[in-house]
Amino acid sequence: MRFFRLLKIIFVVLRFGLDEFLLAHERTSWLLRPLNWLLFFRDCSRPRAERLRLALETLGPIFVKFGQMLSTRRDLIPTDIADELAKLQDRVPPFSSDLAVNLIEAAYGKGLHDVFAEFDLTPVASASVAQVHFAVLPDGREVAVKILRPGIASIIGHDVALLQICAGLIERWWEDGKRLKPKLVVAEFEKYLHDELDMMRESANASQLRRNFADARLLLVPEVYWDWCSVQVMVMERMHGIPISQIGALRTAGIDLSRLAARGVEIFYTQVFRDGFFHADMHPGNILVAHDGRYVALDFGIMGTLTDTDKNYLAQNFIAFFNRDYKRVAELHIESGWAPAATRVDEFEAAIRSVCEPIFDKPLRDVSFGKVLLRLFQTSRRFGIEVQPQLVLLQKTLLNIEGLGLQLDPDLDLWKTAKPWLERWMSEQIGWRGFLRSLRAEAPQYASLLPQLPRLLHQRLQADPAESLPLLRELLAQEKKRNAWLSVIALLLTASLLFAVFTYLA
């Protein structure tokens, strides 16, 4: 089976002229002309990026999904290819209703109508990994049932193995192959696909996001019904709303599009800077708008996470960028450890300035955050800086959010909407609020550590008397100074207490 699949891939590669990518190396470029003469039936007049997209669509859903993932790695692939691959749509024919029923009955070990009071045999959505049916639970709750596509694991295994072979050829024969690291990209894709094959993992993602937005002021997230979930099946609350891509229907429903666009940006920054846990697949197909104007999130297979270090880096970089403080941007890279310690700040600063100044030669409201982050990645690569995978996922999501926001409201000022969030977050992290929050977070650890200090000190003093005496003298000297300060503080507290008592009595 794998052999015939490989033959099909080779045929598609030749049909769409993708051998151009492999044979572009100076050692093999002479082969292109005779190959084009032999394969006279193919048409290579279209741009290479368009031919690549069409080839992936021909090869099927797994290759389409690979192209979608590849389009997010703008730090690795040329811009023309990334732009074209971003057009890929994962439209997959649904599998049969009888098969869906068999999968459900196998997952629960009982008949379909023993599990659901009603079950719509016609799927409402179908993708490469799973498809969705509407149903009703025995207690009357309306649900959406997401069922893993049968045999998808073995299909993915075969196709990923072939992708690894292709990646090896590209890395060996394409002149940019080693720089683009195709083997690492395929490995990342494999991990990403296997995460999507576990419905329990997606259920947990949905549950976490729902908990983060428990007040439901900005975002509605379906409730997961855990008693009906398994690795193959996910059951969640059925959500009602208008697809966000249907602009006319939103206007007819009386939705304020300007407010909707601003809320979308606010939701994104809330997820990123407040929670460090964000929906990383926010394309229009995964978003509904409730009739009261709130966003409804769907499909939780791809979620991004950020550490406090990541969030701090992003916030400070954005603020430094929009203040055109390129020296601070360069320093942040080195301080975070992402840039080599030997990197010269002045050289890195000059490189960032040369790339970013043209961006700011336009009104601030027209500046794209996603493009700023992309330019930062491209510049960083020249200095040997490895781009963090979580930031690449964030950049892809940011471009999606910006595109969606501007589609809803062409006059949306992204900077005006985001700046208060960034400044507030920085204030909370660096100011006294951040200090108190860190103190509260560390308090349990301090509470368990402090009672142990006398025992640890006793052990240290007994370990080596010769080394312990200088330490003991130092501790006694510090204790003497501390006692003096404690005496002063005690006097001040006593005076304050007496003053308060006399004031109360008076």
From TrEMBL:
Membrane-spanning parts: 483-505
BP GO terms, sorted: ubiquinone biosynthetic process
A Pfam family assignment: ABC1
Gene3D superfamilies, alphabetized: Transferase(Phosphotransferase) domain 1
UniProt keyword annotations, A-Z: ATP-binding, Cell inner membrane, Cell membrane, Kinase, Membrane, Nucleotide-binding, Transferase, Transmembrane, Transmembrane helix, Ubiquinone biosynthesis
UniProt xrefs under PROSITE patterns: PROTEIN_KINASE_DOM
Boundaries of every Protein kinase domain copy: 118-486
SUPFAM superfamilies membership: Protein kinase-like (PK-like) (SSF56112)
Stated family: Belongs to the protein kinase superfamily. ADCK protein kinase family.
This protein's name: Protein kinase domain-containing protein
